[in-house]
Amino acid sequence: MKKTVISALLILLSTLVLAGCAGAGGNGSTQGAGDDSAVPADEQADSVQAQDAASQTGEPIELVWWSYSPTGEAPDAQEEVLKRANEISAEKIGVTVKMIYKNEEQFDLDLQTGDYYDMTFSCDWCNDFDINAGKGYYYDISSLVKEETPELYKAVDPWWQIGTLNGKIYGVPLLKDLGAEVFFRMNSDYFEGEKGMTLPEEMKFADLEPYLEAWKQDNPDVYAYYIPSSGITGLFQVHERIVSRYLVIPYSKAGTDEGTKIIPVFDDEEYIGMLRKLHEWYEKGYVNPDAATTEEVPISVKTPVRTGTAWTGFMGWSDPESFGFNVKLVRFIGPNMSRATQQGALTAINAAADEEHVKACLKYIELLYTDREFRDTLAYGIEGKHFNYYKDTVIRTDEGNDHYMLDAFVTGPAISASVVSAGEDNLADPDQWAKVYEGYKDARISDTQGFSFDPTPVEDKIAALDAVWSTYSAELVTGTADTDELIKTMREQMDEIGLEDVRKEAQRQLDEYLSNL
Prior knowledge:
Number of domains: 2
Radius of gyration: 24 Å
CATH architecture of the largest domain: 3-Layer(aba) Sandwich
Oligomer: single chain
CATH class of the largest domain: Alpha Beta
């Protein structure tokens, strides 16, 4: 990543802080990147014509917007919030939206059946952007976004490659956290207040040990680090997964001759080194002995150390009423970036939409990037009811927490919304996003450039390898077994199945993919 380009984004972000779309072939031609598997535009003609007729009456153009919800259900207060947002967008750009929330399964089903929409949420992990853009479901906005919405283009620049496939732009990145960062969530009341220890902004994984030791001495019957069978949240973010969890490329190799070399996870010294240290802590009694069989650690367990993936300045774990103490975040991994981490949220436009509606979509997304009142309304609800402004930040009300709680990226870019404070006595940094992106100057960025492995040629071996991994992984990732002895057992069994054959096939695919870019 070039520092001069990121610096340009930082200037834009500072300005924003201070200023406080699955179909095919629109207009009878395929606008997407690829094949003829997309739903023909004429199957959706009636819907498009009906919207055209409405726009010709002088009424606002109404767009159908598919957004994401884990349950597929809208927040309780969605109707009143959207009414207010539509009043703003109708007045300013002559566009309103009908928002429909979908979960992952609903996206896939409705995309394939050809239900009409104008713009849609898409990402790496839901409504897969690269796959659907490649199938021709999304509109090529390469020219229109620059001609019709120059402020939108400036706001996203230099991150357009996130929504680009085969040299064409098919999606608008909703800028948020783009790199994986993993933090210790630490009891600052105890460590800093009671013990007088310093909690730095950043530390290495092994540097946690003195804090665990201090807690153990004062609380011999309460474990300092409760871990579930899935292991420490985010620990794997030191590498990019290529095949399941056992064939990877370490971020530490990014930018080197080994930056595209796939290796068994057992050879990632950074990752395995942390697991060895975790086993030491387990033997010293810092880790709960039932870690390998515990499905989750409830919030009621007042463990002084938890782990989570977030971003610098995140306030979501800062409410002392939830945890029983004040929490301070200490980063120990990241930021690490790949196309997958960058594609956390995009808005794509239906390739079956006519140009008028495509332009309306772009204007709407541009408004989300450039109008703070509008963006905050969709992000947090109605001011005075669902949230209040306080010292250039937002504080959610109980009404907002109970009836309009959703992740900011669901309704637009995070960077153009006001940041959320946990309370008047626990304020967020209003310049948080500028500082997050400043940190990205030092990010380790994957060299795989969006590669996705096709398991078909070796799927039988992968199934057998997955079974071995599942048998031993809980003990491995919780440190409850000797790390090196367990790795020896796992590796012997996986080698017999054909781990190297799968690795070679993955490497062949990656090399071919990169050679065709």
